[in-house]
Each structure stands twice: as structure tokens, then as C-alpha cells.
Amino acid sequence: MLRADRGADTGGRALAAAPGRNRARGQAGFTYMELLVALSLLAAVSLLILQTFIVGMAHAGRANEETVVTDLAGMLAYPVDMGTTVIVGNSQTYVAQGRMITPRGYRW
After folding, report:
1. Which of 82, 86, 44, 83 is nearest to 63 (CA)?
2. What is d(CA 93, CA 88) in angstroms, rounded to the nearest whole number?
3. What's the pTM?
4. Among 10, 44, 64, 95, fewest CB within 10 Å belongs to which?
5. Per-residue pLDDT of the chain (108 residues; tens, 9 = 90+)
6. DSSP letters of the chain?
7. Looking only at Cα atoms, what is the longest distance across the chain?
């Protein structure tokens, strides 16, 4: 607790009270309703994030997945939907052993 100098205008009253002392009785902390609302919001957001993760994992590693290496003109011959990952190379990209390789320009 801080005290004013005896010669100050405060008449010797405290300048700052201890934490929690200047609150009315029953005003310290959160109410049960505030905690209930906060926990409900946290649960709803967590459920949405978990559901998105589960749906994403359901599409990962599908049994009927396939890898196709083609150019942009030949891409239209294959089905492309929201579950498709399309990787586009550049002018230095080449195919070796069925894999698409794009050099990064590192010099060794």
C-alpha cells in the first residue's frame, strides 16, 4: 500500500490501495454466467476445428488415390476436384523415375 507524504493535499490518505481492496464486495473475478458463456464458445470453436481436421484426414490417403505426372494441356483428361492436389513446376522441372523434380537453384 502506498502512502502520501504528510505534507501533501491528500491528508495522509493512501494513494493506491492493495489489489482487490477497492472493488465492491462480490465483484472480484468472473461470474458463473461469464464462465459458462466462455466455456461454451471455447467448446464450439474446438468442435469446429476438430471436425475440419477429421474431414481432412478422411480424405488423406484414400484407397483409390493415384499420382499422375502430366503437362497443363494433358491435365484436362484427368478428374480434378476439391480433393485433388495439383503441383505446378517451372521451366526447369523434369520427370525422373515417375517423379516430378524442380531444381531449387542451389549451387554446391
Report:
1. 83
2. 9
3. 0.39
4. 64
5. 555 555 555 555 555 555 555 556 656 788 999 999 999 999 999 999 998 888 777 767 677 778 888 888 888 899 888 878 888 888 888 989 988 888 887 776
6. -EE--TTSTTTT-EEEPPTTTTSPTT-SS--HHHHHHHHHHHHHHHHHHHHHHHHHHHHTT-TT-------TTGGGGS---TT-------TT-EEETTEEE-------
7. 91
